[in-house]
């Protein structure tokens, strides 16, 4: 059993804290958001993340998981302090380290006995050194700073955390290595490795992983766009190349661009880190450009369909979250499409199983929200699909066609097969699969 403090209770911090509690540790989560802490103390999970609620409730009941707004109270008994704080893009695209360094400064003033301070946030190479220097300015006791990047995906966060493909631990301190190795032992029982390395390599491993995955998706999006020009079917090409073990089946799904709180900001931050070393990440620069264009690739198609005049058209939007099984709308492609549609004078009625409250906060009254997917379609001139929630995968097409003004679908996630669409008489455009049916 270890005593752990987790500072920051967002998608990463709350999952980290809860999963460490689940393996028998004593965890206290610290957040400056008083309302959030109040909600958690009342037993409420403040984010939507499948399966988190069961673990959360169980560990609170067992007194292994507690919450506070007071950093001093949070860290006083902890041997390990995780920093799961935001690292948003600064104005120039580099990672903003003010949250990390601000809390590090406070930690330096507060600690009185040995602690392992762990960077769980995604941070540029050299941050562990900066955190160390910041704490050292005030600390009067021994401490180590470790880089332990997190690879969980939203929507699968609990599973990814409990059964990680690997755990990366960057430290050159034997003492910290031992503490971290013991902590993670229960999570690598399946034989997946704990990879010990130096801090800088650990920090870069995280950016390299995200940038590689973003590149893989973007490559497939370009292939999809080319498929449309030459009449090939990207789904067939995807399966064709994905069957090669060297390429792999995963992360090859084309769509309206990658979004979320990680890929866009992390690719940008790595490119910026390169610039600081007079190094140009040529591939990643192209990835960012292609992805920007991909987010609105369906817009000109919609404009064409409506002969350049979207003004007054009613567009139903299915899916607002940047991906299914999350309420997160950070950098969601849906928001880019909605912005273009509103600019063109269209009206938008949207439905998303989890993300509507977040979008309401952002867009207010500028769009309408429906209580289910069919209600969103009432009198719609077209349906635009932005997120592949399971509930959208097998709709009653007769009902869909009956409530819409026109049977027109623009699908940014390739949910339906072309034959089904043809059979039901829909005009259907997706990504990389050509136009099947003329209206
Ligand atoms: N979201 C993901 O899927 C994911 C996965 C892997 C890594 N990461 C990285 O992990 C980090 C955290 O991401 P997130 O998505 O969990 O962020 P988030 O925005 O969801 O949560 C951050 C939390 O930190 C709190 N906070 C801010 N300042 C604080 C302070 N001074 N003291 C205490 N709490 C404070 C906020 O109130 C918030 O609850 C980022 O670096 C991100 O890149 C995220
Ligand atoms: O084949 C694919 C797979 C994903 N996406 C898009 O890519 C984005 C990111 O998806 P995903 O990676 O599943 O979600 P995240 O929760 O953002 O997770 C990524 O970012 C996290 C934060 O750094 C990392 O921890 C994870 O390993 C990494 O997968 C989303 O917009 C998806 O729609 C595609 O377009 N095609």
Automatic annotation (TrEMBL):
Binding-site list for NAD(+): 31, 36, 87, 122, 154, 265, 330
GO terms assigned for molecular function: NAD binding; UDP-glucose 6-dehydrogenase activity
Residue span(s) of domain UDP-glucose/GDP-mannose dehydrogenase C-terminal: 316-418
Enzymatic reactions: UDP-alpha-D-glucose + 2 NAD(+) + H2O = UDP-alpha-D-glucuronate + 2 NADH + 3 H(+)
EC number of this enzyme: 1.1.1.22
SMART domains (alphabetical): UDPG_MGDP_dh_C (SM00984)
Single biological process term from Gene Ontology: UDP-glucuronate biosynthetic process
Binding site for substrate: 151-154, 206, 251-255, 259, 323
Pathway: Nucleotide-sugar biosynthesis; UDP-alpha-D-glucuronate biosynthesis; UDP-alpha-D-glucuronate from UDP-alpha-D-glucose: step 1/1
Pfam families linked: UDPG_MGDP_dh, UDPG_MGDP_dh_C, UDPG_MGDP_dh_N
Keyword NAD: yes
Alphabetical keyword list: NAD, Oxidoreductase
List of catalytic residues: 262
Family in the record: Belongs to the UDP-glucose/GDP-mannose dehydrogenase family.
Listed name of the protein: UDP-glucose 6-dehydrogenase
Native organism taxonomy: Bacteria, Pseudomonadati, Bacteroidota, Flavobacteriia, Flavobacteriales
